[in-house]
Give the backbone structure.
Amino acid sequence: MTAPTAGTSSQVLHGVGVGRGGVVGPVAHARQAPVVAPDARVLVDGVPADAATTRATLEAAFTGVAADLQSQSDRATGTIRDVLAATAQMAADRAWRGQVLTRVEAGEPPVAAIDAVVATFAAMFEQAGGYLAERVTDLRSVRDRVVARALSLPDPGVPELLVPSVVVARDLAPADTAALDLDHVLAIVTELGGPTGHTAIIAGQLGLPCLVRVTGVTDLPEGVEVAVDASAGTVTTWPDEALRAEIARRATAERALAEDVAAGGTADGHAVALLANIGTAADAERIATGAVEGVGLFRTEVLFLDRAAAPTESEQAQVYAQALRALGGRKVVVRTLDAGADKPLGFATQPDEENPALGVRGYRLVRTHPELLDTQLAALARAQRDTGVAPWVMAPMIATPGEARAFATAARTHGIATVGVMVEVPAAALRAREILAEVDFVSLGTNDLAQYTMATDRLRGELADLLDPWQPAVLDLVAATARAGVEVGKPVGICGESASDPLMALVLTGLGVTSLSMAGAAVPAVRHALRRHTLAVCRQMADAALASGSAVEARRAAADLLDPQVRDLLRL
Ligand code: PEP
Ligand code: MG
């Protein structure tokens, strides 16, 4: 692909960036789903097959797709492994396979039968919302693979790439994302999908810049040169020399930042621990090689999702022990099961709640399924005994000091020495002092704290301005919690997404938080920003943000106090 010629008009498309990276490269479109008529038939020697052969072909297609996905999963690690295993399970699922086969036996053409059943399941998932709504992409990708295989068409997905390319798709199935040839993929850009979807999560884990919700991107011609800027959320066709140079300069700067492995702290030596968020023991092994001081949030619910029953005590203990060993004695904060709302569990959460985010979720599950917490605490205690490493253990969605006390009592009874709770409900932030009297530490979950403070569903992209952690009301609650921690001398960490914004990290430090936990890839930029500002400047930024009238003003007020070199390097 050649550089732009004078007069080539550039087009800028906008989307939601995941991560901070930027790249320049040619567009390679993923192969679309097979285009077939709903009455297409399975053919044998060019002749439509009878019902029995069609049934057997379809059954083999389902089994083959499930087996392929499972073997891809077996070769993968971490979140990718789990996502692929979940998609394989979906392909093997007896319920929808059975419904398809029954329809085919009754004489319905196979594609029409599959599409009818997929439509029913997709509607069910979408209605459930949250995590399940995002599984609709997985369901459709299984459909496309089964249809292609049954009709002997090429598999949908990313074609073999001959040169490093920007992969563009309407929506990329997790199986396609996980199977990408990393030597030839520069970035992923999709028209659909959300920043918390599987594709975005996997792209983050693979360290690929990713943009989702980019309207019109699938209309770009194959091979057209584009600049993808995840931090600006833009795709620019025919980038000029200035933009290419800027992206190259930033890539070099980000690489240099990642070489710094010092502990987190301000310019004048005020320590702020920089920790990583993980979802699996394999994630722990992966981040253990990087320069993080430990894990600030182990989301254990990943182990419980897509299961018919909770994992046993010994199965859980093995996973927790693996994570503790991987970190080799570094701090690991394990969060007990946070199911419900956007993470429903078939065997525990209630399917008929009208407002699941306000329902029996997180720690509240102890009311309906006390055995889940009991087994998990026993498993954590067993992992502690087996490894000789003591995890910090915290509960999600605590609303009252009474809940904090009950959780602390249960955890200590099991032999957990350092017990904490998350502050992600405004009531807990307002009563942080009383809550801290019951536990050893708290960790602010700003994703949910913003959702509940602003009464804004965290999954609704169109309300992002309200959900913004820079909203002064959210900052007030963070400040109140941090102040309580300083007063009683107990740690107050942050493990919501806001910690990965270097400017917000400075404000949080100024407010008095003692640790910042984020996606591992976000740590270098946060470390750099901290190192270039004194605690006094962080406090000034915090004061300026708190005195602001809106989220936009709060961010601007803090940014006005930034070191200009840091502002330029990190584009803050
Ligand atoms: C949060 O709410 O900020 C948090 C860290 O928890 P989760 O995103 O898993 O709900
Ligand atoms: Mg939360």
Q: What stands out?
A: The longest helix spans residues 51-75. Residues 396, 424, 445, 447-448 surround magnesium ion (ligand 2) (CB under 6 Å). Residues 1-7 have pLDDT under 50 and may be disordered. The two ends are 32 Å apart (CA to CA).
